[in-house]
Design goal:
heterodimer; A: 308 residues; mainly alpha; MetI-like fold; two-stranded antiparallel sheet; 4% strand; globular; B: 360 residues; alpha+beta; Rossmann fold; OB fold (Dihydrolipoamide Acetyltransferase, E2P); six-stranded mixed sheet; 35% strand; elongated
Chain lengths: 308, 360
């Protein structure tokens, strides 16, 4: 603080601090606190707000356990609250998206960081960036067209004879959602991974090779362990963004796919019950954070490693 | 166990730049061979070609008589010690050392035992479970050597591994490396730009400049009878005179300079080429009376006391600097500044040498 005042003068320092405070307080803390406070109160007619029935409770949170459905997995039938079921599917497919993003991004990150000549690197990075300039809505719709019944993907697969009849990709459970989320968020995996691999001393790779290691062993013992913080930060990013995405599941979802954010959205917009919607939103946030924390513990990554 | 290395007409181009030009050298099994040269002379490229990270553009490399063209580094019987050592920071020391065994499928107990044996060999018996970051520079050095030895290579390749160490440790590690080489009998190929290192450790030295091997000989020969001006000036100091050589007779020739006529050695292959006269400062003596041969009157301009020797810089009437080194035997007399003296050198100790051999 002293240092900042000395460097920028008291006026500019004050402006910077006020702007940061405004951003933090007005745009982050106040709206979230408001929603958090609302989430503990019941959804009441306007006249009753502040009345005797307007008391704090966990009721909105408990609604997630209402309304069970019959499901079966691996031949075992069970009943499960429908919103909990949606939540688990959201987590499961977000993990799947994260995992496939890693499989796609790792070879690319390694190629960019260690193999490609420094001259062509800027061009390649630019080519990766350009799709990011297009709005997420357009990109999701682009995939909607690609995956369409009479779209280019089916045309291509039919053309090379891999399939005999076109496939309804966007009506196959979570297929469209998973594809769309991977496309939207794969770069959030690529860049942390690229940074991590790039910081590895190339001599280490060569030393391992010189000592007789085959290529897969070099990756398993040298490159992957070194890249762990990058993998972790990319995974956290992709997982959280996927689990919290509303747009992609809305556009590319099928009749049989439901994302937890869509449930929240329905509480907000269809039921107009902001209180329950807030409760669900916080449930998603808390449970995802918990999940990520446990996952990081399991893989022995510290938050401070990710920040590097 | 140890293997020889033969390079036959080896060239290496990077685009239009020729990094190594027509290298021919035959390194004997069990030899300690150094490539010595300034940075950018192609010595590291040679090392990387032997280890397999770079393929030669032309020529053949044989290790133990076998052509290794097209073989990846992990298929060659060589072990490279990197300039920055490239130890694996996420593994404990013993896993570092046994990495090469692990990829060969050796079981854990054997690996651990082998790592501990090697740690004893490099005199670091208690380091097995430490991490790389806990070791000092010299200790890391030893771990790198142990890691390379673990795969029982026929050839050890060392890329200026001592350059990061301080002077005392470097001198200690020189002796250590030499001892380890003698104990194991493995062929060592050593890359350095430090002439002292190369001369002190090697059985033979190859001096390189601009991609060409200038001279291959044992250290004494490199220092005492360099084949050209580059080798003479890169390895040790010289007083250099320009002039014209007369006809050679019995390996000696007259040499006319602006300081007068000198006599010096002239190798048969240098006859007819433009040459300069090179004489070492320690072979140049300063006396009050004129010397019997190759004598020039000079004035003492600078005296610097270096400890083991005293360097005296004197100037001729024409302003040319001549350096003479007097060995400090405890009673050496130091010339007075401004004293008029005579610099002279034995014709046997002076050589008429052509410039470095360059491509073309």
């Amino acid at each position: 603080m002293q240092d900042m005042i000395r460097r920028y003068g008291p006026g500019l320092t004050l402006i910077i601090c006020l702007l940061v405070a405004f951003w933090l307080v007005m745009l982050v803390i106040v709206p979230n606190i408001t929603l958090l406070e609302q989430s503990f109160r019941p959804y009441l007619p306007v006249a009753e707000i502040g009345g005797p029935r307007d008391t704090y409770s966990l009721g909105n949170y408990m609604k997630v356990l209402d309304g069970t459905v019959e499901k079966s997995l691996l031949g075992i039938s069970f009943t499960i609250p429908v919103h909990v079921y949606t939540f688990f599917l959201t987590i499961f497919y977000s993990i799947l998206v994260t995992f496939i993003c890693f499989l796609l991004a790792y070879p690319l990150a390694y190629y960019l960081a260690k193999i490609v000549s420094p001259k062509s690197l800027p061009t390649l990075l630019l080519m990766l960036f350009i799709p990011l300039w297009v709005s997420e809505v357009l990109r999701a719709f682009a995939w909607w067209i690609i995956l369409a019944f009479k779209g280019p993907l089916n045309a291509m697969l039919l053309g090379i004879g891999l399939i005999d009849a076109p496939i309804r990709w966007t009506n196959m459970g979570y297929t469209g959602v998973v594809v769309g989320l991977i496309y939207t968020y794969v770069l959030f995996m690529l860049f942390p991974l690229y940074n991590a691999v790039q910081s590895l001393d190339t001599n280490q790779i060569e030393a391992a090779e010189d000592l007789g290691a085959p290529w897969w062993k070099i990756h398993w013992k040298i490159v992957l362990p070194h890249s762990k913080p990058g993998i972790a930060s990319g995974s956290v990013m992709v997982f959280m963004l996927s689990a919290g995405s509303l747009l992609v599941p809305s556009i590319l979802g099928s009749t049989t796919s439901q994302w937890f954010t869509q449930t929240i959205d329905q509480w907000f917009k269809d039921a107009l019950d902001w209180n329950t919607a807030s409760a669900y939103a916080f449930l998603l946030l808390i449970l995802c954070t918990l999940f990520v924390t446990v996952a990081l513990k399991l893989f022995r990554v510290r938050l401070s490693d990710i920040a590097k | 166990m140890s293997a020889g290395i033969d390079l036959e007409n080896v060239c290496c181009d990077f685009g239009t730049f020729r990094a190594v030009d027509d290298a021919n050298v035959s390194i004997r099994p069990g030899e300690f061979f150094s490539f010595l040269g300034p940075s950018g002379c192609g010595k590291t490229t040679i090392l990387r070609m032997i280890s397999g990270f770079i393929e030669p553009t032309a020529g053949v490399i044989r290790i133990g008589g076998q052509d290794v063209r097209g073989k990846r580094p992990n298929q060659r019987p060589t072990a490279l010690i990197f300039q920055n050592l490239a130890l694996f920071p996420l593994m404990p020391i013993w896993e570092n050392i046994s990495f090469g065994l692990e990829v060969r499928g050796v079981d854990k107990a054997t690996r651990r035992r082998k790592a501990e044996d090697l740690l004893r060999l490099v005199d670091l018996p208690d380091a097995a479970d430490k991490m790389v970051s806990q070791l000092s520079g010299g200790q890391k050095q030893r771990v790198a050597i142990a890691r390379a030895l673990a795969v029982e290579p026929s050839v050890m390749l060392l890329d200026e591994p001592l350059s990061a160490l301080d002077l005392k440790l470097r001198q200690h590690m020189r002796a250590e490396l030499r001892a380890i080489q003698k104990r194991t009998g493995v062929t060592f190929v050593y890359i350095t730009h430090d002439q002292g290192e190369a001369l002190a450790m090697s059985d033979r030295v190859g001096v390189m400049s601009q991609g060409r091997i200038q001279q291959i000989a044992d250290p004494r020969e490199i220092y005492n009878t360099p084949v050209n001006g580059f080798v003479a000036s890169f390895v040790g100091e010289n007083n250099i005179f320009e002039g014209r050589a007369g006809a050679a007779a019995g390996g000696m020739a007259a040499f006319d300079t602006e300081e007068g006529r000198f006599r010096a050695r002239l190798a048969p292959e240098a006859e007819g080429k433009p040459v300069k006269l090179y004489v070492r400062p320690e072979h140049t003596v300063l006396t009050a009376a004129p010397g019997t041969e190759n004598s020039v009157p000079v004035t003492v301009a600078e005296v610097s006391f270096e400890g083991p020797f005293i360097a005296v810089l004197a100037r001729t009437a024409k302003g040319r600097a001549i350096v003479s080194e007097i060995r400090n035997d405890g009673q050496a007399t130091v010339p007075q500044m401004g004293a008029a003296m005579h610099a002279s050198f034995a014709a046997e100790r002076a050589a008429l040498l052509p410039d470095a051999s360059v491509r073309g």
